[in-house]
Design brief:
The chain is mainly α. It has one domain. The chain contains eight helices and no strands. α2 packs parallel to α4 and α5 packs across α8. The longest helix has 26 residues. The chain starts with a helix and ends in a 5-residue tail after the last helix.
């Protein structure tokens, strides 16, 4: 029961954040703050959440990775902060499995977007490759994509894998 409640509570928030991120390409700091406050409540009242050092390993690693990706202009800062605090809401025993789904989802969707952008800009891509113009080549691929929908997809996939939803 607690697992299903936790899963569906996170799902509702992910749907809202994914919709907002898709429409505005921004994740407000309010969602990060909401996750932090929710984490405090979960530690106090949920049997699935415990306060120990292991609880913070994935969130800290994701925040550090997100910071590096943000400085490389690959990921938005709001995405990195949101995902790191999202891992505080996820029970510790789910961290590794969900992160695996998230990484695979990210790779699959990024590859699909690369293929779509190459097919849309094929002649320009060929021209920029021949000229060895990396800046021109990067312009063929557009801007960063909304990442919260990818997180939502990974969350749904994760639930199907562990039989939380049938």
């Amino acid at each position: 029961m607690a697992q299903n409640l936790t899963y569906f509570s996170i799902l509702v928030c992910l749907v809202a954040v994914a919709w907002i991120d898709f429409r505005t390409k921004k994740i407000s700091n309010h969602w990060t703050l909401f996750n932090l406050i929710s984490f405090v409540g979960l530690v106090a009242f949920s049997p699935l959440h415990h306060l120990n050092l292991h609880t913070f390993i994935y969130p800290v690693l994701i925040l550090l990775t997100g910071f590096v990706l943000f400085t490389l202009n690959v990921m938005g800062g709001g995405d990195a902060k949101y995902i790191s605090t999202l891992f505080l809401l996820i029970p510790q025993q789910w961290h590794a499995a969900f992160l695996e789904r998230l990484v695979i989802s990210t790779c699959l969707i990024a590859c699909m977007l690369i293929i779509v952008n190459i097919s849309r800009n094929y002649s320009k891509v060929i021209k920029e490759v021949q000229l060895r113009n990396l800046k021109g080549l990067s312009s063929c691929f557009g801007t960063r994509f909304s990442y919260a929908p990818v997180v939502l997809f990974a969350w749904l996939w994760f639930a199907a894998e562990i039989n939380l939803i049938n």
